[in-house]
Amino acid sequence: MAIILLGGEKGGCGKSTVATNMAVVMAQRGADVMLLDTDPQGTSSNWVERRNGREQTDLPVVNCAQKTGEVYATLRDLASRYEVVIADAGGRDSKELRSAMVAADVLLMPLQASIADLETMNRMAQLIELAKAMNPALRVMGFVSRGPTNITGREAMEAREFLGDCQGIEVLGTVIRDRKIYRDALLEGLGVTEMGNSKARAEVQLLVDEVWRALA
Ligand SMILES: Nc1ncnc2c1ncn2[C@@H]1O[C@H](COP(=O)(O)OP(=O)(O)OP(=O)(O)O)[C@@H](O)[C@H]1O
Ligand SMILES: [Mg+2]
Residue of the nearest CA to atom 14 in ligand 1? Predict the structure, then answer.
């Protein structure tokens, strides 16, 4: 029903981390979730493999498929069969990213609070314009990812202000902070909401709530 695409032109900002964690939260809430990994690097699909290899049998199911190249038809087909499709694209301009943007309901862009990440928005703006010509309903949402855990600092706020000045982008209030638990979760095939860190759990749930509310 809904296609949420994690994408952007910057590598390493947390797209796969957020994709896998959002998938877990939605599965925990009873949704039938499909994670489509469109990145040949396979971060999300490797995570699902580790998840499925765990001895625990009570974990909520996160379905996963891999497809590279042109992914428009695959995404539309999956959307007709699953409640939520979360697509994970690699951090560069690619056929996968471009075709997924034409199919998606939401392009969700994590950005680190650093000029190296933020200045990729200029190039993304061109891709968004192209995608919107074919997919006018596409919603574009940006949020700060891997933000410093020192919440008194101004970096995350300044990055949000920067994003707020970018036309056509909805800036989310949630900030995903840089926490070791996210790296541990990726390694373990889990979501942080299945582990014991209340701060990480809260921010991931908040992110899902914010995206969900915007889609309702
Ligand atoms: N919030 C976070 N806190 C701590 N570590 C993080 C966080 N988000 C991502 N990481 C770590 O940063 C690295 C890159 O994250 P991830 O693979 O999610 O980024 P990506 O945007 O998907 O990268 P790519 O563009 O290569 O697909 C990983 O080692 C991951 O564990
Ligand atoms: Mg990735």
Answer: 12
pTM summary value? 0.97
- CATH number of this structure's domain 2-215: 3.40.50.300
Residue with CA nearest ligand 1 atom 31: 183
CB neighbourhood size of 40 (10 A): 11
Distance CA 209, CA 23 (A): 13
Query: Each residue of 30-78: pLDDT tens digit?
Result: 999 999 999 999 999 999 999 999 998 899 999 999 999 999 999 999 9
Q: Is the CB of 120 under 6 A from ligand 1?
A: no
Query: What is the dihedral sign for C-alpha 195, 196, 200, 203?
Result: positive
Q: Enumerate the domain spans of the chain.
A: 2-215
- Index of the ligand 1 atom closest to the CA of residue 89: 27
Tell me which residue of 154, 166, 70 sits closest to 123, measured CA to CA. 166
Residues within 5 A (CB) of ion ligand 2:
15-16, 43
